[in-house]
Automatic annotation (TrEMBL):
Record-given protein name: Uncharacterized protein
Species in which this protein is naturally found: Bradyrhizobium brasilense
Organism classification: Bacteria, Pseudomonadati, Pseudomonadota, Alphaproteobacteria, Hyphomicrobiales
Top-rank taxon, per record: Bacteria
């Protein structure tokens, strides 16, 4: 049976210029015998250089009128590209089923032409000398969705002060020059506003890779809002100096900094107010005074030398334009001197205080006090005085100048002794001094109080005065010393003791520093009786009144001393100190002992001390209590008994003699 040739059908198609399209989706293959396609052939009838063409993996631009054969397995690698310009052309295709080729099937490919992009910039306004990126104003569109590949700009403003383009390759593009910039570099295109106000025409167009857009013109206006400088009307005192800067209000709608100022004084009288600058100490009236903004603080106005008013003018420059002149009236007025007062004050001796807390200053015109003067009329070496950081003791009858800002650093020290003196203060308002105001400063002190209550002591008893003494001071001053006085003149009366005097005589002033009070002692009298004693305290300035107190010395109780009867062998020794019993009702220790040997026989017992190896009988033997262990007793040379005696002394009285029997045995 004969083979039936395959059939390939394809419809007519349209593509956007330069658009790519796979051919396979457009083809429909049919074979009545059911044979699959083995290969395809294509033919391009468009011979123009910018017409559509076929592409395969083996040839990226097949020439027109050429048979292009492709195996069926490679059909997906066959592409058609639309023409570069609008137009139509005929293309062909047929298929082979392994036995026969089908007929050629033609189809028309229409290339839709490119639509040029559109770029626009609205009319814009830019502040003089201000920079902006051109891309911020630019709007780009393309009906075909093509991206811009480059831009061109044109500046028609030829004035030296007009706005201009800047790119990274040219920091000032000349007017009437085509400026071409890749789209990728658009962010590097800047426009600087003109250095003066004015308008000019700029142009822009864009390229989408195929066509340029039309040129779009836009007007760039370099604008500036002049600054505003105003000064309100002011009154100043005759011959007063003020800085103008504090009077000026400066604004600029564009935020420009004021770069300079001009002033004008219309007052032509010889006594009128005038301007002062570092380079002219008296500017003539009706003269333009130029001042850089940096020097504005150095512009002063001096009030007229008589009362009166005049008109002055000011304006500011923002680097582009001057503000309007602003007028203000300066009135020179008489000055009312300020008033400074300090009331009479009291200070504790040597107390420090800031007079700022005492001072009242006022000015009827509300002028600021700029400085003060103080004066101290107290010339005594112990009087109060002024202190400032630069002088720790201002001499009396000296003018002390102090700026108002340093007032808190002025101190007064109260006198070192009590008393009063006159001091003075006055204030300066920048034009005139106030009258001097006098005030009395009294240095005061409240004497301390020292007391000792009446006391009772045993005879010869010791006591520390620190345990009895109470001292206080209403000013809080520390007690620095004490004085004591003993009014008891009897030899047996109580008395004071200090480390440097073991028995202070009566009717003697005893000076004791407060730190040594614990070292002052009182000893009770050695006989019963009373003594009047006195104490007072010193607070560094004043002594307290003397406070009297009575020391009562109780009568002494004689001690008791005894030795029990003793038995010794012939010629045996015994240490007497071990045998003595001592007692004292007043707890006074024994100061001395006496012994007596009543045995007169040559062979009887006897006493021995280191000072005498055999004390004779019927002899008083004196022994210090500290030497009691130094006395011994020896048994007789023969047996027998005898009476011996002992008594003790407590520093005041002797005890009764106590008899004891010494028996000598074999």
């Amino acid at each position: 049976m004969a083979n039936s040739a395959p059939v390939v059908t394809i419809g007519n198609h349209s593509l956007l210029y330069n658009q790519w399209q796979k051919i396979q989706p457009w083809l429909t293959y049919a074979d009545s015998d059911g044979n699959p396609a083995q290969k395809f052939q294509f033919w391009d009838g468009g011979t123009a250089a910018n017409s559509a063409y076929f592409w395969t993996s083996t040839n990226d631009h097949w020439a027109a009128n050429t048979t292009i054969e492709v195996s069926a397995s490679d059909l997906s690698d066959v592409w058609v590209r639309a023409g570069a310009v609008g137009g139509t052309e005929t293309l062909w295709v047929r298929a082979f089923d392994g036995t026969d080729w089908g007929n050629w099937t033609s189809f028309t490919l229409t290339t839709i032409p490119n639509t040029a992009p559109v770029v626009t910039v609205p009319d814009v306004q830019l502040h003089t000398n201000t920079w902006t990126q051109a891309k911020n104003w630019l709007t780009y569109s393309d009906a075909n969705g093509d991206a811009a590949t480059k831009y061109q700009f044109w500046d028609s403003g030829t004035s030296a002060t007009s706005a201009y383009f800047w790119t990274s390759t040219n920091d000032h593009w000349a007017a009437n020059t085509t400026i071409e910039v890749a789209a990728a570099d658009l962010a590097d295109v800047w426009i600087k506003g003109g250095s003066t106000t004015g308008a000019e025409t700029f142009w822009v167009r864009a390229f989408d890779g195929t066509d340029w857009s039309n040129w779009d013109s836009f007007t760039l206006t370099s604008a500036n809002t002049p600054p505003v400088v105003t000064a309100g009307d002011h009154s100043i005192h005759i011959d007063q100096w003020v800085t103008v800067d504090n009077w000026l209000t400066k604004t600029d709608a564009n935020g420009d900094a004021i770069t300079k100022y001009q002033f004008w004084d219309s007052g032509t009288a010889a006594t009128s107010a005038y301007f002062w600058t570092p380079d002219n100490s008296h500017w003539a009236a009706n003269t333009t005074i130029d001042v850089s903004a940096a020097d504005l603080a150095n512009v002063w106005i001096h009030g007229g030398s008589t009362t009166g008013s005049e008109t002055m003018w000011v304006r500011g420059f923002d680097g582009t334009e001057w503000s309007s002149w602003d007028t203000f009236t300066v009135t020179s007025t008489p000055n009312t001197v300020p008033v400074a007062t300090i009331n009479d004050q009291s200070l504790h001796v040597n107390q420090w205080v800031k007079p700022q807390g005492w001072l009242t200053a006022s000015d009827a015109e509300g002028d600021t006090i700029t400085k003060y003067q103080f004066w101290d009329a107290g010339a005594g070496a112990t009087s109060a005085y002024f202190w400032t950081p630069d002088n720790s003791h201002w001499a009396a009858n000296t003018t002390i100048d102090v700026s108002a800002s340093d007032l808190a650093n002025v101190w007064i020290k109260g006198g070192s002794t009590t008393g009063s003196e006159t001091m003075w203060v006055r204030a300066f308002d920048g034009t005139a001094w106030s009258n001097w105001d006098s005030f009395n400063l009294t240095s005061t002190n409240t004497a301390p109080t020292a007391t000792i209550n009446d006391q009772t002591l045993n005879a010869a008893q010791w006591a520390q005065l620190v345990n009895w003494t109470t001292a206080s001071d209403t000013d809080g001053d520390a007690i620095t010393q004490y004085q004591f006085w003993d009014g008891g003149g009897a030899a047996t009366s109580a008395y004071f003791w200090t480390p440097d005097n073991s028995h202070w005589a009566s009717s003697t002033v005893i000076d004791v520093s407060a730190s040594d009070l614990a070292n002052v002692w009182v000893r009770g009298g050695t006989a019963a009786g009373t003594d009047s004693m006195f104490v007072r305290a010193f607070d560094g300035t004043s002594w307290s009144a003397w406070d009297s107190f009575t020391v009562t010395s109780l009568a002494n109780h004689a001690p008791d001393a005894s030795i029990s009867n003793q038995t010794l062998h012939v010629n045996e020794w015994s240490q007497v100190g071990n045998l003595v019993s001592y007692a004292d009702a007043d707890a006074n220790p024994a100061a001395a002992y006496q012994f007596w040997d009543g045995g007169g026989n040559a062979n009887s017992g006897y006493f021995w001390t280191s000072a005498n190896s055999h004390w004779a009988a019927s002899t008083v033997i004196d022994v210090n209590a500290a030497d009691l262990d130094d006395i011994w007793m020896r048994g007789g040379a023969t047996t027998g008994s005898e009476t011996m005696y002992v008594r003790a002394y407590d520093g005041i009285d002797w005890s009764a003699w106590h008899a004891f029997t010494l028996s000598t045995i074999v």
